[in-house]
Amino acid sequence: MIYKDRSYSNSERAQHLLSLMTLEEKVGQLVQPFGWQVYEHKDGKIELTVEFKKQVESGGIGSLYGVLRADPWTGVTLETGLSPAEGAAAVNEIQRYAIEHSRLGIPILIGEECSHGHMAIGATVFPVPLSLGSTWNVELYREMCRAVARETRSQGGAATYSPVLDVVRDPRWGRTEECFGEDAYLISELAVASVEGLQGQSLDQEDSVVATLKHFVGYGSSEGGRNAGPVHMGKRELLEVDLLPFKKAVEAGAASIMPAYNEIDGVPCTTNKELLQDTLRTEWGFEGMVITDCGAINMLAAGHDTTENGMDAAVQAIRAGIDMEMSGEMFGNHLLEAIRQGKLEEAVIDVAVRRVLDLKFALGLFDAPYADPERAARVIGSEEHVALARKLAEEGIILLKNEDQILPLSKKTGKIAVIGPNADIGYNQLGDYTSPQPATKVTTVLGGIRSKLADDPDRVLYAPGCRIKDESREGFEYALECAGQADTVVMVVGGSSARDFGEGTIDLKTGASKVTDHSWSDMDCGEGIDRMSLKLSGVQLELIQEVYKLGKPVIVVYINGRPIAEPWIEDHAHAVLEAWYPGQEGGHAIADILFGDVNPSGRLTISVPKHVGQLPVYYNGKRSRGKRYLEDDSQPRYPFGYGLSYTEFSYSNLTVEPQVIPTDGQATVRVDVANVGGREGSEVVQMYISDVASTVTRPAKELKGFRKIKLAPGESRTVEFTVGADQLQYIGQNYKPVVEPGQFRILVGKHVNDTLSTDLWIQED
């Protein structure tokens, strides 16, 4: 048969298979049930459920979501979950049954979460995307994506629901941690790297997976920072900002896209034909698969209220351009009946099914559907990947303050008190979308510092002091006792995106784990956890203030998923490190920086306000946004691109040649960067462009280039950028890209508010 014959093209094979399928088999390809529900794991054996077998035999299943996913939502634990080898064997069992017991033997597409690592037991937990963006190291991130693809595909996972390309406009949003930051250009660079890293040279390779771009689109601009809230955005901003990373990733070859939950100007993204058809497919030429987010079609009838019932919701979605439904309930329950009632044409189904089949053939699933359990055991959580996780964490940590160069600490320093609710709780530094972890796998800050001072463990004192959210001060006394004995205090505070992994609570006097009859959640960030404030939760600030009264040097380490606005800490702490959620190697990475084994090189990709009342405070707002409030100006506490180093860098000789170019011309920007300090260090050289006068209002400054360079003491380097239409254009009055003649300012420097400048002139052709 043609569709089983490798000598035919993938397109010919898909078309032939489609011609053989019944209507029930076609609809089956468009549904994606929850994968962890199709098997039972008992006594080391995998047993497929009766329901799954019936569904395969009656029409088939196109895809499964989260076969390998483990977390409190799935209910899969370390005890009940699958090892790397067992996971691969389970996927093989699922595939074997689908192929051998369905009429046409169509393999199943296994889709997994991989935002900052394959979300399966044993997989490497990398830093969250907000930290990955803060590295400004595109090549290192691409390498991470290759590692994630390797781990996922080794178990049979063929698609991942990442990268998250949302542009953050309100950091109160709980999913800020899943995003790269507030700048569309930077996100675009990382988006391309993600697609190249995840998908590799070819999707049918053993270390490649489908990249699914999400959330399409505007999800990071929700009203009030509330998850999936309405988005109020004009077409120009949509084209210029939020759509840009998706467009660049589609051009890089992304094979899948996930629409966002939100509505834009009253139209839910799940049924937005202008986005899903006109922009994505007609204008951009996207030929891949569009899959919904979980429950998104249900929201049309119960949330957005744009349809009367589930059948209408399913019909609207597939007509708008949806190819597959995550969870599969609405498509599975209603599409067949909609066709029978004449509400939907089979030809519409055929278009969606063809895209699903095209993707499966491109992945090579018909020819090589099975994973290698032995390879999965070797690849997943390998030493190489763990080392990469540490490197990424090191480069994503940002030094915000370093009064009197108190950092780096000397390893010969006296006693160090490590205090705070995030000092030794592993799950608190991993972020949302994380699988269960054995305690020995995650290195906390306390563990990292103890490792540095292993020759004299008595020099390291520890007290949690308080929890993240609780108002209890019962741990203050012991924390102050520890701080009083120390020469230096490291306060590890922030937030938590840890769901309830059954760890119980902690003894505030000793920091020991304590199992209780009730679950305890310190989660104040993550999906669905949006806040009204950017202050520290609970009594953390009060704990820091009490410790500060002892007169000891206080170093604050933030571990968190969104910016923290605490003016008192910024004014009083002797040093401040922003570590975001740094992943399983975060404790080592933070200790490396505290003791100077690594020179901090992270830079902010999101502006940190002085107060939540300043929001929105993202750097590239319009010139007309205003200058100040009654109480304070509109400048953030820490601007976009900001970050300190243990050395100093100087900038000089900024030039642009030629200084006058036509609208389709190019110029070269050069600047000399020198390390004028006493240590080797890495600098992120940032180029911004300002259109001095434009027909349509523009941001005051926009990032249009960056380079991360390493320089030895006394070393200098000339850094070059190319400026042309891509950097100078904007969406004009007719909603098309235009480069207008006139004056442009080129700004290059350490961050958005610390730059040299020169002018470039664009003349009429």
UniProtKB/TrEMBL annotation:
InterPro entries linked to this entry: Cellulose_Degrad_GH3, Fn3-like, GH, Glyco_hydro_3_C, Glyco_hydro_3_C_sf, Glyco_hydro_3_N, Glyco_hydro_3_N_sf, Ig-like_fold
Claim: Mitochondrion is one of the keywords in the record: no
SMART domains: Fn3_like (SM01217)
Record's keyword terms, sorted: Hydrolase
Residues annotated as domain Fibronectin type III-like: 683-752
Protein's recorded name: Beta-glucosidase
Record's keyword annotation contains Hydrolase: yes
